[in-house]
Amino acid sequence: xxxxxxxxxxxEEMLDAAASxxxxxIGVASADPFIELKxxxxxxxxxxxxxxxxxxxxxxxxxxxxxFDSPQSIIAIAIAYPSKLVxxxxxxxxxxxxxxxxxxxxQDYHTVLRDRLSKxxxxxxERVPELRVESMxxxxxxxxxxxxxxxxxxxxxxxxxxxxxxxxxxIYLGEMITNLPLPPDKPLADGCGECTKCIDAxxxxxxxxxxxLDSKRCISFLTQTKGxxxxxxxxxxxxxxxxxxxCQTVCPVNRRKNWTHHPELQPDxxxxxxxxxxxxxIGNREFKERYGSMxxxxxxxxxxxxxxxxxxxxxxEKSAVGDLIGVLQDDPRPVMRGTAAWSLGKIGGEEAxxxxxxxxxxxxxxxxxxxxxxxxxxMAECSEMESI
Length: 388
What we know:
Elements (H helix, E strand, L loop, with lengths): L2 H15 L7 E6 L4 H12 L11 H5 L10 E8 L18 E2 L8 H19 L5 E4 L7 H7 L4 E2 L5 E2 L7 E8 L18 H5 L5 E3 L2 E2 L5 H4 L8 H7 L2 E3 L3 H4 L19 H4 L11 H8 L9 H15 L5 H10 L3 H14 L2 H13 L3 H22 L1
Parallel strand pairs: 3-10
Antiparallel strand pairs: 1-2, 2-7, 4-7, 5-6, 8-9
Helix pairs in contact: 12-14, 13-14, 13-15, 14-16, 15-16
């Protein structure tokens, strides 16, 4: 058998074995440097659009040979995840709920993809004993999306997601650099056409153009930060606790697509759409026990607690005033106190007003004090309007 035929046959067998390995799509990309991507990333950095969570070395992000000795090909994989909750619990007055983005439903996808990549590696090792690989999932240096696009798993959507006709953008991506000269797949043609629904629907205008994201304006990024947020951002966060799915839910390619064949990725309704008030005082141990197996837990409880406070303010949930006053008075973290003040200002009422007046006198953190004063001013303005 010719050498080229050997690798083609191995690739065909690998594709046939994908489902048995728990993988929905496999593609192969060349291990050449991602020259065009590097120029895009340079411009992205110059414009200040990075999130800060990325690998800082642009050469490592775009040149596989800096990560692996003599790379020959990159195998890209995709695993589909669910997009719908069946019979979800209702968010209603007195029992308001937040929502966690779909990509964090079920078991942490990093764990799931590493398991699948490990199975694929074992499968390849049985057939090619001299195999060498370097596997990556999300936190690796390479761009998962750039590899997946080159490997033909999907096209780069205007929402910066990899879009696949069959699976939509509800897919997790992973890759392994290898020393196997597997024949590469061809990238798919763009399937977005003239559609701009994702760009039009982005709550903060973070999609600044087709396939162009200002990460620092993206709600998905902002919900993962730990500091104070601006008023406009908090209003637009709504009841999101972690992540944002707007640019995916409005996408016509994703219509009626929901994947339930990976049991470990299925959502626990009470975890992905939790009651907000209990989150305000959840302890570290309980948080780790309840949420530790989900990818949304990677930043700890603080961002999710802050976002729960924001959500109660956006709901104008009067029954939560006492709980928010507790945060304002007792939480040791300035961000939580200031955000609680913001929410109390949105809800209003005599009890909230009295609590803010008391809090501003004893607040020692300057930034938190600013938020308290702004909330008081907003309530005073509303009272004036109502009296006219």
